[in-house]
Amino acid sequence: MTVTGAVAVDAQEPAPDSTADSTAAPTPDSSRTRLPTVTVKAARASQSTFAVPLAITVVARERLENRRGYSLDEALQDVPGVVAQSRYGGSDIKLSIRGFGARGAGDRSNAGTSRGVRVLLDGIPETEPDGRTSFDLIDLAAAERVEVVRSNASALWGNAGGGVVSISTVPSFEKFFADLQQIGGSFGLRRSVVRAGTRLGTGSLAATFTNTSQNGGRDHSDSRRFLLNTALTSRLGDRTDLGLFVSAANDLFHIPGPLTMAEALATPRIANATYASRDERRFNRLGRIGMTLEHSFD
């Protein structure tokens, strides 16, 4: 008698129905298991930096006072695990957190950019979807605090494999204020900063205008930047806040280019002849309007 599989059948029993065998349920695969559904919920909430499972450093405004403030390297130079270096003294910096991050490749479109670290300005990403960050709209004269997450934060902030640098320009004040700051330094550094703010009912309006210029430490390394930052914040309810942020910049810096070892030892302040003849530079004029709406559900 022909039987299915290796099951023994008594000779006196009727033969099994072949039609029933073809429709019988298949033997379950013991190597496949259906796991229970896992639901993950995330919500923003205030928490102490000591309780967050991330390495966080906060740079307060007091540490930014009386500095040139042209680029982020001056704010982050004392943060452990962070390497921020300016190539020619302008906003073209290399930003690396715990070895992760790279300077933008190229001399024009990618000069003054970085990759691998997410940068936020008042909660609005300066980092593009591909991980490239331009620093044209960032000036420490308007910064109230700088928060640095020195950990892989891509699960919370997307393209932030190397970490996060969050800059806030919203000042805390109770009544109208205005101040003027003038800074001068070597290599023709001139910086003028005008800051003002006023209360508007339950909200506030603050603005910062910065004009910075310098000749640079090498030929063809001069730079200038005009930057305007305004922040309008309003409390719409007990648990709802609205923010409107307007930023504009006119940023120009020249690129002196690399030197050979012999040139660097003999005349370190000269510019690369090819770069000088082509007038290599980065010149960006840009503006941005951003809005944030925060509501606490619980």
What does this structure look like?
- By secondary structure, the chain is mostly beta strands.
- The protein has a single domain (56-295), classed as Maltoporin, Chain A, CATH 2.40.170.
- Helix content is 9%, strand content 39%.
- The chain is built from 5 helices and 16 strands.
- It has helices spanning 18-23, 73-76, 154-157, 261-266, 273-278, and strands at 56-60, 82-86, 93-97, 102-103, 113-115, 118-121, 124-125, 132-134, 145-149, 164-168, 177-185, 189-200, 203-214, 223-235, 240-254, 281-295.
- It has a 6-stranded antiparallel sheet with strand order 11-12-13-14-15-16, with no helix packed on it. A 5-stranded mixed sheet has the order 1-9-10-6-7, with no helix packed on it.
- β2 (82-86) and β3 form a beta hairpin.
- The protein is globular.
Strand count: 16
Report the major sheet: 6 strands, antiparallel
- Following the backbone from N to C, one meets helices and strands in this order, namely HEHEEEEEEEEHEEEEEEHHE
Helix/strand structural class: mainly beta
List the helices and strands and how they pair.
Layout: H1 18-23, E1 56-60, H2 73-76, E2 82-86, E3 93-97, E4 102-103, E5 113-115, E6 118-121, E7 124-125, E8 132-134, E9 145-149, H3 154-157, E10 164-168, E11 177-185, E12 189-200, E13 203-214, E14 223-235, E15 240-254, H4 261-266, H5 273-278, E16 281-295
Parallel strand pairs: 6-10
Antiparallel strand pairs: 1-9, 2-3, 4-5, 5-8, 6-7, 9-10, 11-12, 12-13, 13-14, 14-15, 15-16
